[in-house]
Amino acid sequence: MRCGELAERLDERLAVEEYADVDASANGLQVGPADREVARVAVTVDAAVSTIEQAVDAQADLVIAHHGISWGGIDRVTGTAYRRLAPLIEDGLALYAAHLPLDGHQTLGNAAGLADLLELTDTEPFGELGPVHVGQRGTAPDAYSVDALHDLLAGELVHGGEGVQVLEFGPDRIEDIAIVTGSGVDWLEEAAESGADAFITGEGKQKAYHLAKEHGIHAFFAGHYATETFGVKALQDRLEEWGLKTTFIHEPTGL
Amino acid sequence: MRCGELAERLDERLAVEEYADVDASANGLQVGPADREVARVAVTVDAAVSTIEQAVDAQADLVIAHHGISWGGIDRVTGTAYRRLAPLIEDGLALYAAHLPLDGHQTLGNAAGLADLLELTDTEPFGELGPVHVGQRGTAPDAYSVDALHDLLAGELVHGGEGVQVLEFGPDRIEDIAIVTGSGVDWLEEAAESGADAFITGEGKQKAYHLAKEHGIHAFFAGHYATETFGVKALQDRLEEWGLKTTFIHEPTGL
Amino acid sequence: MRCGELAERLDERLAVEEYADVDASANGLQVGPADREVARVAVTVDAAVSTIEQAVDAQADLVIAHHGISWGGIDRVTGTAYRRLAPLIEDGLALYAAHLPLDGHQTLGNAAGLADLLELTDTEPFGELGPVHVGQRGTAPDAYSVDALHDLLAGELVHGGEGVQVLEFGPDRIEDIAIVTGSGVDWLEEAAESGADAFITGEGKQKAYHLAKEHGIHAFFAGHYATETFGVKALQDRLEEWGLKTTFIHEPTGL
Amino acid sequence: MRCGELAERLDERLAVEEYADVDASANGLQVGPADREVARVAVTVDAAVSTIEQAVDAQADLVIAHHGISWGGIDRVTGTAYRRLAPLIEDGLALYAAHLPLDGHQTLGNAAGLADLLELTDTEPFGELGPVHVGQRGTAPDAYSVDALHDLLAGELVHGGEGVQVLEFGPDRIEDIAIVTGSGVDWLEEAAESGADAFITGEGKQKAYHLAKEHGIHAFFAGHYATETFGVKALQDRLEEWGLKTTFIHEPTGL
Amino acid sequence: MRCGELAERLDERLAVEEYADVDASANGLQVGPADREVARVAVTVDAAVSTIEQAVDAQADLVIAHHGISWGGIDRVTGTAYRRLAPLIEDGLALYAAHLPLDGHQTLGNAAGLADLLELTDTEPFGELGPVHVGQRGTAPDAYSVDALHDLLAGELVHGGEGVQVLEFGPDRIEDIAIVTGSGVDWLEEAAESGADAFITGEGKQKAYHLAKEHGIHAFFAGHYATETFGVKALQDRLEEWGLKTTFIHEPTGL
Amino acid sequence: MRCGELAERLDERLAVEEYADVDASANGLQVGPADREVARVAVTVDAAVSTIEQAVDAQADLVIAHHGISWGGIDRVTGTAYRRLAPLIEDGLALYAAHLPLDGHQTLGNAAGLADLLELTDTEPFGELGPVHVGQRGTAPDAYSVDALHDLLAGELVHGGEGVQVLEFGPDRIEDIAIVTGSGVDWLEEAAESGADAFITGEGKQKAYHLAKEHGIHAFFAGHYATETFGVKALQDRLEEWGLKTTFIHEPTGL
């Protein structure tokens, strides 16, 4: 498949245009000519020197990453920008990025993937950001205890570093769960005000402690990387259905 | 001392006005009439319901916090804003906030305090933010190993939660150290480009991993709370010199 | 009724959300927890120390004001902001504000109330402000003379200060009348260009004189306070229908 | 004198450039070619059809007005803009505008003129607006009573309409007086916080009532027009010194 | 016909309102009272002193120009602005401007007129600018050679100066042609990416050279003036149908 | 010399930082790691595929261009951005850009070079752009006639396309000449108002015609490329003095 054709198909599937005004990431094809032929795709969370080198080793023609390399425009191709672009160009790889579109997609996205893992039902969009949503909420058929939810997250997610951190300020029985993966603390209050028992995100931030305490909600910090492998893996399945070979490049950050 | 007089003295000592254009925090007197008489001051990292209640119990007249309650204006005094304001007003406490001015002050600030703990010399302002700096850098008289620096931070700082996390991508001998306390990952590249061996901040962020790796610099995440007790404690000393009684309200967040 | 439930009902009735982008006032519940129980409501034009104290004396649980206390965010709870918030919080009153939504509502609003007093017919929205209107225009079944209209306004409106001022530059017979209550001079030209014989607002402004003269339209300045008691009084009726007790707090400003 | 030369001299004398960033008025020469010869100048508060026609009758070559006709750019020369421009162009008059520069000038300005009338001493700039001031404050050698100050203003200023309105919330003896002429209510709080006993401006605004009451300061509304004849009259004297004939066009607005 | 009525009819016909947010030109009636009676209309590309004087000589009541005299507001009626406004006002002419609405209109516009000249078929809007288009593209029934297209443009358009300049980087056979008249180089890449063989605009810009070369597309610079006489001439026909007399004022700029 | 060291030396020499707020071009090192060793430098007007390829052929290590490849940030490295970056990265060339700093420098800049060619004396900065200037003006010791100035420009500048175009609206004797190279029409009025007899720039624009005519000034359009080879050639001399080999890559655009 031509790179440009594949990019257009992904743009459409992920509704990339709807996120254009609220995402600093230049989603879609970020690097490479549209007429490049693509047979093998490497998917990964972060486009960076080491993951790109692994994609080269895997003989990929295209890297699809949740975190690409253009955020608000590349002012100078020096330093880190140069180090990341050079291997892509020298080894002939293209790069496709899908940031918020892959957080908020209600079946393929990161939050949707985590909700599946927790077997939530009655799921609905959560995490308002202008006209779109970047997360998902749902109900646990059987209520979790704090320990059970902690252990499930700690056991199933690959963190590569710290474990799962909990601010234990909510009720004993956790049924209603709101999720924004990655760096989602800004939606903790929306979760509390909408009645969730627990809010799950990736990274913690200082202000979360008192907000969670004062709202009486549990906050789980399960790792930015660990909560954001779902989306690119879900894309992997679609790509294979479209006749492409795929490789998942795994480099957990521990963050 | 009158509350207004004390606030003016602190404003001047911390050069609050220089930070006005770059800090979302409304630094200075945030709550309370200027003519209130102040005898006892509670200092704390976060102004929140529980720390304010502890200040009430300590019979303080004024709370000085690194993180206040007004960030870009309080649109509605409902929810959390109400819960935090109500005890201040009902129990007659005033609130003074010093955010970035207390991060960047080169002798009283959080980074300066952490640099003291590490016994850095030849310290200078670090962490550009418009016209001001929010951190400090310096040289360790005897080079640290990664383990030694980790253990010093882990042993001396009170985290209340996770320990100190290290991205170990720098040299064996750590001499040149750059510090921005709290949420300082945005200055990791400035640290690397200026030749630092290690960068210390409070919270980790996902993007730090590959930036540290590609720049060949160590990144230490020693906790937002844990790295930001220095400033308010340094103020405590000054306040006592000015004849005021003080109390440090300690509520570590583990973040 | 719970305060939050009442606020939502009012938000909906007054279409508060439609005005969000054009009104500096934080319309809706401005102060107080949503779970407070409300039995008695005090309505008033201005939320300020003296009207709040009168509401306390009247044993109200909630104050509904046309002019609230949050305009573009409260940066510091000091000075006037403190003096107004303190009695609300100390005496357990909530505050609900409805500014432009209560100017522009076509049956409950201030302009609509004044149009009723003048017995205008064929009324329609007037006073464009982005996507909404903040006034009303209509036709007098029997034409007014300048003196008759002046006397009606002077006799029926409670000013508390100066009387009604007229810039007498329009035709002898006044049939088509445009109204924007309060501070509405900016719509004088819209009134003239749409063919109105007279424009009625609350406060005069210097530039109105020559605009009215050059457009050949009468301008009536009937007082900011005096033209803006209609809206909160109309709400009073609705609140009583909903089973709440109400009190109108009257403090004319003479402006 | 050539029009351009006169304009430059006025620009310099009034420090027009210092006000450029904070004034919507296009101060300086607003209409007319710079090479026009000027023998007679008409000065007036408002540039409008009737005052321009009076200037034509007075055989003036140039109109100097406090309120000109270009505020943020003339988008279309239709309606009022056409009616005002046409007589200027048809009858060969130029127009020079001096808005905030003529409010804030500490000897020629409107506030300075009113301070002179009140015989204030120890005058200093008042009314901060970015880098400049738009008013003046000073001390009355013998304290005024409210009635005495009211009567002096009512007797000496030509209003053409309503008299002088007072919000009587300050002390019995009025010594420290702050002045911003015209539409200056936004500086009422600065006046109160700086310890003034009374604040004098031209137009009243609704919010002034409770602010004055809560701050315990008198507010005098002496008329927009009436407080702003001082500046252009002071210019008249300078122009005569420069050998030009002058006429004061008086059209009080009553506002 | 009254000037205001004619202006409204043109506004509607040219969909002036749709262009309001993207055009610096104040499109519509720019100068003159709406109640002026119009019998003869002069149409021209540029409203300027010499074309206005020719319109006066032609005894026109209204000038319709592609380039008017108000772009983002007239700050001062001095210098050039004065020289252009004065003859309009002194000789009683009104001015109507239609900039982008007359570039992008798909039957009356400049690009549409040029497409007609080239006998393009299957025309469609081209040249995105926010919600509107400012050009047109279409297919030549018989492919042009570079020389044939050059000679046609050079022969049919009246330039008044330089001839037609070609950057000859496209294919031998030119079938698919995109047009944005005037200053349209910013759409050269859109033309190339949409598969056009040649892009025609008025003025050249330095950056066009390498963009055309790298995209393999021909760029024709046929003159700003020369490509923009189509629109006002098309309006001339409509005006005559509406019973008005018209004159085309021709002043080629050679640019 | 290391690339980073050379870039810093040029940044300082050209006062690059002073232009940072007004220039869309990311001036300074745009592409390449700072530690690259530089022996040979290719200088050129435009960084583009063909000039970069010529620099590769010339075995340059660094390209210095007046027009670089990053203008307001590279959003996507696709299309033209890819085609230009790829040969730089694949062949190991760095890229340094100097746009407005090389227009406005008063001895090395483009305008200064053109002023030298015309043997102007008493030169001074011309062409205000915020805090900097982008051109130069001066006096011809012996007045030029229009023909003489035209012939000098046409004879000495290498255009590669159209010749020199003149709008002949100024005086017979041309003594005072203002220059902004490249695309400088926006400063034509500043030239006229400051008394220049002729204004020289590179590209013409439609609006220049009537402005020049109404101001009575000659406008010479001598080609964007042709007027902008001076700056990079002047740098060539400095680089040779610093011990570097240099090559001038000449690709006239005819624009």
TrEMBL record, chains A, B, C, D, E, F:
Coiled coil: none annotated. The keyword Amino-acid biosynthesis does not apply. Transmembrane segments: none annotated. The keyword Hydrolase applies. SUPFAM superfamilies: NIF3 (NGG1p interacting factor 3)-like. A divalent metal cation binds at residues 66-67, 103, 224, 228. InterPro entries: DUF34/NIF3 (IPR002678), DUF34/NIF3_sf (IPR036069). One of its GO terms (cellular component) is cytoplasm. Keywords: Hydrolase, Metal-binding. GO terms for molecular function: hydrolase activity; metal ion binding. Belongs to the GTP cyclohydrolase I type 2/NIF3 family. This is GTP cyclohydrolase 1 type 2, NIF3 family.
